[in-house]
Amino acid sequence: MTETTSGPARGSRAKGSSKANKGLRIERIHTTPGVHPYDEVNWERRDVVMTNWRDGSINFEQRGVEFPDFWSVNAVNIVTSKYFRGAVGTPQRESSLKELIDRVVKTYRASGEENGYFASPEDAEIFEHELAYAVLHQVFAFNSPVWFNVGTKQPQQVSACFILSVDDSMESILDWYKEEGMIFKGGSGAGLNLSRIRSSKELLSSGGNASGPVSFMRGADASAGTIKSGGATRRAAKMVVLDVDHPDVEAFIETKVKEEEKIRALRDAGFDMDLGGDDIASVQYQNANNSVRVNDEFMKAVESGAKFPLRGRMTGETVEEVDAKSLFRKMAEAAHVCADPGIQYDDTINRWHTSPETGRITASNPCSEYMHLDNSSCNLASLNLMKFLRDDDEGNQSFDAERFAKVTELVITAMDISICFADFPTEKIGETTRAFRQLGIGYANLGALLMATGHAYDSDGGRGLAGAITSLMTGTSYKRSAELAAVVGPYEGYARNADAHKRVMQQHGDANDSATRVDDLDTPVWAAATEAWQDVQRLGKKNGFRNAQASVLAPTGTIGLMMDCDTTGVEPDLALVKFKKLVGGGSMQIVNNTVPKALKRLGYQPEQIEAIVEHIAEHGNVVDAPSLKPEHYEVFDCAMGERSISPMGHVRMMAAAQPFLSGAISKTVNMPASSTVEDVEEIYLQGWKLGTKALAVYVENSKVGQPLSAKAKEKKKEEQPEPEKVIEYRPVRRRLPKGRPGITTSFTVGGAEGYMTANSYPDDGLGEVFLKMSKQGSTLAGMMDAFSIAVSVGLQYGVPLETYVSKFTNMRFEPAGMTDDSDVRMAQSIVDYIFRRLALDFLPFETRSALGIHSAAERERHLETGSYEPDDADFDADGLAQSAPKAELALPKEEAKDAKDVQRTATEPEAATPAPREAHNSTELMEMQLGLNADAPLCFSCGTKMRRAGSCYLCEGCGSTSGCS
């Protein structure tokens, strides 16, 4: 995107050595001389009215906002409510995307000019226009703090990720509490390593035993919980790391496991242990992600079954030796039960460290993608990969590597400029960040890109394209970093770390050269990446580098929605059918528009494509789709559903991208509920062997209904002798006594009135249900009578209520619609309503929570306490309400013909139908269509089901996330 001031060579270099001649020549990528990017698009006014789907109350309203006509309803809603500054209803309030972009982009340009980045005012203007164009057309986005803060009167914090440090002194520990609190107060998260704190098995200078890091974690956890309660609607995000050779590592591993056991015990005793409940505050260690930092010595000991030394913090001497395999097993057991701790591979991380002479990398940010020096920060930006997929005149696809490289240069230049004017939460973080200038460029929409190009996510072709793009991105970034070093100088810490930095650049280049070229899509990208890494070696040797770090793969939560991305970060697609809001109100479910592109790439004809898309619209998957070859099924595998990607498929994708990243990857490896502890061990072992830097796993439903006492019961059972005879068990009917407690509920569903009487056993538990409809003698009334008898008999024979609830909720038939029940505002049928009401009346919270059923009071309490994982995207300096829009009733097909929302062509059909009335986003739609429950929390801003974004969660409705964005 740039050229030198000293010649026509491609790229950007300093012109001569004198200060007067320095500056970048900026090349146009998308813009036209004499025409502002704003003048090349159609603008329209829209009303943003975001309502609470539970009761219809308005949470946010701003009418007449101005956006391009191609921006989706979701993107407009989230940018308006999250990023526009100024009090709503005042002249100071931003009301146009132009104002938002100008506020940010003009600040970058002014700082770039002030600090000598551009060769001339003309180059500065091209920089401004190109940056504005890229944001306007959703080609890339800065992380949320930029949109919150840049160009405002408040501190211009641009970073989302922070790493702190703590030493073995009370003064340092108290500083840790304070610094962490200030970061939480500002809406961001931080990570740190506690391994410098001496263990509880070591002595103090006074002769007494030390408290140990696990003890001090209690204080930090309480502080984070207090800030959560007293601050905005969010919980503090933090990462706590402990080295595997720390003598307290076993206690660290067990912290959350024991607390999970406590939650179950207290809940069984009648305490309010629901998330946000009155008694949940007694549970510790819930405000952080925990990770164990393992080294190669430990992993080799695990493989060989050797002993491993735990070393004192003050002397380095061995305090005790443990069996490495046994310790590794305990890590896997804990992760299998409660998803913590994750694992970080210390030697792998530090082999790729550009600044080791200054200090080791000991920790990460809460989402695990940013890894660098203690007391540092990283500002993020992400590219939308689908914007670089192009079709030629003959319908063939290619990835536009040249334009991708130019946009990468533009964004890296802007990101580096931001450090010149940025503010930081602590003085130490500011000093380190200005001295090393860590950047975190990344991308979103990889999953969509792979599917659109006919690549299975878990395939050599998919990994080849992902690796090539990542290599080109990081190589181009470091090339630009070397060019910037010639213009404005290398980072302050470079001289001391020059040899190490150049060694790491060589490692990246070697990995690029040895990577396998797979097909016609990735091979040209690898070629461009090879050229970029050759330039990195040459320019870096001459100029040094401006940035110690260049790239990471972040979750891209809220900014992914801003760019209308189908998939976040490095993640695959969630499901093949999506939930889409319409400009005129209402919503529709559509088959992903990447599906027709994939089918076309695979050689299917228009008629076949249309039939396959219709099959997906009806069934939610490609299994048995007409004329679709079974060998192509894998192209359409998603994170969840009929054909879901295997856990190792996720790990292999991380391994394909990792050698070409400065930092790491925010991603959780989802594992099916059938996974064993041995499966977790294998994932952690393969993550090390494949060269990833960090891993976290989540076994589906592991935190619900999985009592820790199961192992003890199994062991006891194993100790008993085998029975001498086979006993056949048959269900026995347990009839209710003559006098029985009951609840009678009147209800209205879609205009149909009725009464439900639910009677219980005296010792608790539903035993029978009677249903009476208002129109006696009707077919419906008769069927309800017969149905209630069948359900009652099943209950008395021991069929669990939750089984009925899971089978009959979401069943759709008339009458359906609005109800008069404040807890269940909408029902898809009378049966759907009945079992939602029974679940609320008779099932414990954790059981129905897993089924996605909550009362209005529970949702209200969750909204008020705001206890959900934080993300910078939720932080609003103006104190604006952060809630999701209500999904309106779906429009009839004949009323949803807006060409901007539903487009059908011969080669790219889009099967669109009204969305189910009870769905509020894609996750809930997928649950209904596939008949399963997503392992994701409810958004405590708007109550809808979130979806995974990296190692965090994202709410499609209101943009709230639980990590970096």
Automatic annotation (TrEMBL):
Membrane-crossing residue ranges in chain numbering: none
Short name of one Pfam family: Ribonuc_red_2_N
Compositional bias ranges of the Basic and acidic residues kind: 891-903
UniProt biased composition (Low complexity): 904-916
Keywords recorded for this protein, A-Z: Cobalamin, Cobalt, Disulfide bond, DNA synthesis, Nucleotide-binding, Oxidoreductase
Domain Ribonucleotide reductase class II vitamin B12-dependent N-terminal: 48-138
Domain Ribonucleotide reductase large subunit C-terminal: start-end pairs: 159-698
Keyword NADP attached: no
Catalysed reaction, written as an equation: a 2'-deoxyribonucleoside 5'-diphosphate + [thioredoxin]-disulfide + H2O = a ribonucleoside 5'-diphosphate + [thioredoxin]-dithiol
Cofactor(s) for this UniProt protein: adenosylcob(III)alamin
Residue intervals of the TSCPD domain: 740-840
Region (Disordered) residue spans: 1-24, 887-920
NCBIfam families, per database record: NrdJ_Z, PRK06556.1
PANTHER family: RIBONUCLEOSIDE-DIPHOSPHATE REDUCTASE (PTHR43371:SF1), VITAMIN B12-DEPENDENT RIBONUCLEOTIDE REDUCTASE (PTHR43371)
Similarity field: Belongs to the ribonucleoside diphosphate reductase class-2 family.
Protein name: Vitamin B12-dependent ribonucleotide reductase
